[in-house]
Amino acid sequence: MTAGTPIGIIGHGAIGRDLAERLLGSGYHVTVLLRAGSTSLEAVPASVGTVHTIDALIGTRPALVVEAAGQSALQTLAPALLSAGIDVVAASTGALGDPVVFDRLATAAREGGSRLVIPAGALGGLDYLAALRGTAEASVRYTSRKPPAAWRAELVAAGHDPAALSGEIVLFEGTAADAARLYPRNLNAGLTVALAAAPTPVTVRVIADPAVALNTHEIEAESDLGTASMRFANRPSPANPKTSALTAASLAAAVRRLLEPVVL
Q1: Is 217 a catalytic residue?
Q2: What is the CATH number of domain 6-117?
Q3: pTM
């Protein structure tokens, strides 16, 4: 199921724009949900449909909807879609660090017979982490290592000059839920790791590092099954240096995987 299949996207920022282009190129019919008066409307091409309410998006009868508008959008808009039986692919997985939000979305999916899909995003190796479930003595550490430009505001707030760093600065170390809450726009990956590995404990570190030019994700896992070390160095999105350009490509891959007859 590809040609002409209707797909919805919530949001048309850096991720949403790139995703829409990719889906159009694969032959899908794309409709974007944006609030009336949004400045993002000007950038929506004529080949992409637009609606302004969640009911209108449901009315387009999409095969699935991709959320690409931030944690608040996932929290407030996804329940109606899931309750209507529409699968939702969530880009803003950090919202799921709140157990109340997680339970609300899971309940809506159960009642609607739909699925909330957690994509890999800027990462890989989630299948390995999921395989650790129930394994004794398992632990996972995730490190987000990005150039200072991605953390400019946070570094300034902490009293650092982003242009004059001589070494790495650890901005955070703790749980994935706390990391996603503190950095809702650029640390969804940590929560994705935690969801894949659950209930295996996950420690998250956030580092501004002048020695790296790419958005770098490091995953280290240890268990009775063995050890794993994974590193992903992604080019930043030209429109948003806090986001990896790979994210939109990963969301497009999730759409294809959910709709095609042979699944990897």
Answers
A1: yes
A2: 3.40.50.720
A3: 0.89
